[in-house]
Amino acid sequence: MNQDLSILHMVLNASLIVQLVMLLLVLISVSSWAAIFRKLFALNRVKSLNDQFEREFWSGTSLNDLFSAAAKNARHSGPMERIFASGMREYQKLREKRIADTSTLMDGARRAMRASFQREMDVIESNLSFLASVGSVSPYVGLFGTVWGIMHSFTGLASLQQVTLATVAPGIAEALVSTAIGLFAAIPAVVAYNRFARDIDRIAIKLETFIEEFSNILQRNVGAQSASGQ
């Protein structure tokens, strides 16, 4: 009896539709785990690069030196460094055009940093929608397989004169495996989505705080240069 109700036996003896649903859920689960590990490594790298640049930014290095380093290290820079480079690039372009108005300089730099911030967040948030879809849809896909399996099981019992628990249980158990696999795919995706969403919110807050702090530094520099007659 134990052998008859083993997971492998139930999967192999399920109806074709239920088996296809199980296969689909397994593929979804594998894809979900791959997306989870990719996102985990990507977010850890973003945090590390942001922390590294933030230390350099507040170490007393001049803005021009930081901008030169960011330009040379563009391929291996983090979101915070790329946002800084966007603001500095726009600021220097406006200065080269002999624009001395503080509000014009600051508005241009802020717009450039905001546009860069949005691009970075779009990249950081990629694949989150996939995890959300897996978490919300997988249980229903598994439930569809279960309902279909139970319908198929009861259809097969219609021709029997006497129906006992021993004849009903195997078919229902086979169908319920589909729901179990659906939950197995959904639960890690939901947990990972919540964790990543929280981490991304923290990254976004940190980047927005940096934009404001850097804007204040640029504004002080503009004021100092205006006062000195440059």
Task: Describe what this molecule looks like in 3D.
This protein is mostly helical and 230 residues long. The chain has helices spanning 7-12, 16-57, 63-72, 79-96, 102-124, 128-157, 165-227. The protein is built from seven helices and no strands. α2 (16-57) runs antiparallel to α6 and α6 (128-157) runs antiparallel to α7. The model has no long low-confidence stretch (mean pLDDT 85).
Brief characterization of the structure:
It contains 7 helices and no strands.
Give short descriptive properties of this protein.
mainly alpha; 7 helices; rod-shaped; 0% strand; 230 residues
Topology diagram in text:
Elements: H1 7-12, H2 16-57, H3 63-72, H4 79-96, H5 102-124, H6 128-157, H7 165-227
